[in-house]
Amino acid sequence: MFEAKFQTFADSAAPALGTARLKLLRDELERRGLDGFLIPRADAHQNEYVPPCDERLAWLTGFTGSAGLALVLRDEAAIVVDGRYTLQAAAQVDTASFTVVPLAETSPERWLEKHLTAGAHFGYDPWLTTVEGEQKLRRAATAAGAVLVAVEGNPLDAVWHDRPAPPLAPVTLRDPTLAGESAPDKIARIQAALAEQKLDALVVSDPHSVAWAFNIRGGDVNFTPLALAWALIPRTGRPTLFVDGRKLSNAARDALGHVTEIAEPMLLERAVEMAAAGGATVRLDQATAPSLLAARVEAAGGKVSNGASPVALMQAAKNAAELAGMRAAHRRDGAALARFLAWFDTEAPKGALTEIDAVCALEGFRRETGELKDISFPSISGAGPNGAIVHYRVTEATNRAIRPDELFLIDSGAQYEDGTTDVTRTLFVGTASTEMRDRFTRVLKGHIAIARAVFPLGISGSQLDSFARQHLWAAGLDFDHGTGHGVGAYLSVHEGPARISKLGTVALARGMVLSNEPGYYKAGAYGIRLENLEIVVDGPAVAGAERTLLAFETLTLAPFDRRGIETALLTPDEVAWLDAYHARVRVEIGPLVDATTRVWLEAATAPLAV
């Protein structure tokens, strides 16, 4: 009935090719006088999703995960991955050629210190390595008595003979009614921040920030509407947008020409040198800027200010138009979700549904809105034990039937022109065990604790993170991912700089959108995650309050599966919150769905019987 348009389920890993490709690379390294080379899973912007031409790690090793790197020496090679991908890497790479190294056991730098020989020349691509990354590599090479070499022209590219061409998707102009602020006004705000921080210029190396600042979108990568581009914004005067001119229609070029100079990306290095001349201070985003640009600043006599881009906080705090668009997108998405959930409740008990079937159906319901531009990330669709794999991606090889008396976890999101969504629900098929209901309810209690939180202005996500964990901790349980991440407005579903996490040090501010997604995972058995998106809003008026208060407004509109709730574990306040939330879902989504779905929705959102 349904097919997926925006995601595939093929496993493109080719471990059998790893040995031959590794030899090609080693021969090229020897030709260049190098004893080793670093291959990160990154493009020049450090994007989460990269175009096919930048999938160097996958081409060399077969590993298709979204994070990791390979270290290739003359006689040995390693691929370093975090805990999400240890099993996947072992299955996808030729382990006779590459040693899979869990990041929890050793860092890439420690591995290099141990395996580099004195006098060896180890290369890296300065376009694909940040300043901080380069500093770590240099310390490791120095400790081993080796020499770190910034390589001009990536040696892997020289042997990747069928490498795809760079993307050339058209740049589109953001609808002003959705952007809510003109590009000139945004540039003026950025320049005011540069003046306040005594910076002479800013290199905008994150394409998400370029998209926000210039009110443009594109299609150069999957799942995020990005045009791969750079910008150089001086403290005074006109900025320059560096973008392949073939992506610009005459109308786009004309509109942008009123805001910025336009140049080809190949001119970026020279422009950075000119901006740095005379001892000028140039801010480079420490998270995304290539180390090559830092070298250009210093070579021109300038000073590198390596820190956070001031654009990141501006784009994280959505304006009224962006929030209106996000609310509209979530109502539309909520209707598609309701249709899916009603369909699932009818079809899953029949025993024929698979994980892929569920993904295709949910995407199909979203496409039927007529507004879906893309999904916001590859859907996580885990039945039974697959649900316990936090970043599981179903393939044709792993596709599992959704069986009775098991849990099914589906984490998915959509890109609409007016907003980005991300939602997770854990669904019950058949009868839930006592343990499952206990764990589900503890996760739900943590979710409600975040949703109901009231906190002073200046509080960071790290100070809220434990709210989501307290009821799991009380039972000796926990989860190993953060509680929440930032979300963009028709941009990245994983947007910084704020997050609800032990590592979330950025203060939460009005207009930020964050996920609220506590979970619990029993390896080999089942996984539970309950995720809504939340807007940071003004808190309630409190008599005698001495601090400005903030709170959350829930964006996502989708019922929680009542079959998993152990009502005896909920407090009256938690029941009241859940009943009010479900009533809101019923009121806002009910008019948007068909009669059959509306009947299902009435039952799914009825008040809890306590």
TrEMBL record:
Q: Which residues cross the membrane?
A: none
Ranges for the Peptidase M24 domain? Answer: 325-536
Similarity field: Belongs to the peptidase M24B family.
Q: Where is the Creatinase N-terminal domain?
A: 21-144
Protein name in UniProt: Xaa-Pro aminopeptidase
A GO cellular component term found in this entry reads: cytoplasm
> Which InterPro entries does this one have?
Creatin/AminoP/Spt16_N, Creatinase/aminopeptidase-like, Creatinase_N, Pept_M24, Pept_M24B, Peptidase_M24_C, X-Pro_aminopeptidase_P
CDD domains xrefs: APP
Residue ranges of every copy of the Peptidase M24 C-terminal domain listed in the record: 549-608
Q: Name one Pfam family in it.
A: Peptidase_M24_C
Query: A single GO molecular function, which one?
Result: metalloaminopeptidase activity
Q: Which UniProt keywords apply?
A: Aminopeptidase, Hydrolase, Metal-binding, Protease
Q: Can you tell which superkingdom this protein's organism belongs to?
A: Bacteria
